[in-house]
Amino acid sequence: ICAVLYPGDATEEGKLLRLKQQYFLCSASLQDIIFRFKERKADRVSGKWSEFPSKVAVQMNDTHPTLAIPELMRLLMDVEGLGWDEAWAVTNKTVAYTNHTVLPEALEKWSQAVMRKLLPRHMEIIEEIDKRFREMVISTRKDMEGKIESMRVLDNNPEKPVVRMANLCVVAGHTVNGVAELHSNILKQELFADYVSIWPNKFQNKTNGITPRRWLRFCNPELSEIVTKWLKTDQWTSNLDLLTGLRKVCVHASSLASAFVIAHHTITV
């Protein structure tokens, strides 16, 4: 199944293989997560599913792991015996969505026929999610009835019915974020603007990347101490420009290394 990452999807066989990959990885991860959760709860009263979201976070990076939503619902309902409302509450509090780009490849749309062929139970769950979302909007936001079709999880265009995976992520996740302030604003003001009017607090920003304080000082304290020693200050963790002071040290160290090599070569000869 995973011999080739992102197989070509120009053919139905390629589409099915790619969907199999996504499902395999999502299902394996969730089954392992649930197993570990139940194992750690073995010494306590069973059925503590309300605690699941406080112990587990499933962060969907772009739409490739979106099948985690219907798969978690399936596992909770069909395997663990939860009802829809309880399973949905657990799922909604567990999964969140990071959008990395507004490019089409990160906003997958899967053929309903392909989805139904490979994952009929998941398609049933997705259809129910779409139905309940539509009913919620119609009953609570009469002003948005004209926009509901573009917001739905299912695009039922008779020529090419698809599942909008990004819409599913937004509807099902407790939080949606971009990876930079500008990007997150685009999501809120353009791509997902209609959803923002329903769930204004669902949309956040998480700036992508790492900081020297978190990465170098915390993860590599020994190297951090060396840097601080040669700079004679630890203020570089909040002022990266101070790291330019290492250039003098590096030049000096390079000269010493060259001298050592020459001396070693002379002794050897």
TrEMBL record:
UniProt keyword list: Carbohydrate metabolism, Glycosyltransferase, Pyridoxal phosphate, Transferase
Domain of life: Eukaryota
GO MF entry, a single one: pyridoxal phosphate binding
BP GO annotations: glycogen catabolic process
Any one of the GO CC terms: cytoplasm
KW Amino-acid biosynthesis (keyword) present: no
Cofactor: pyridoxal 5'-phosphate
EC number: 2.4.1.1
Reactions it catalyzes: [(1->4)-alpha-D-glucosyl](n) + phosphate = [(1->4)-alpha-D-glucosyl](n-1) + alpha-D-glucose 1-phosphate
A Pfam family recorded for this sequence: Phosphorylase
Enzyme's top EC category: transferase
Transferase listed as a keyword: yes
Function: Allosteric enzyme that catalyzes the rate-limiting step in glycogen catabolism, the phosphorolytic cleavage of glycogen to produce glucose-1-phosphate, and plays a central role in maintaining cellular and organismal glucose homeostasis.
Protein name: Alpha-1,4 glucan phosphorylase
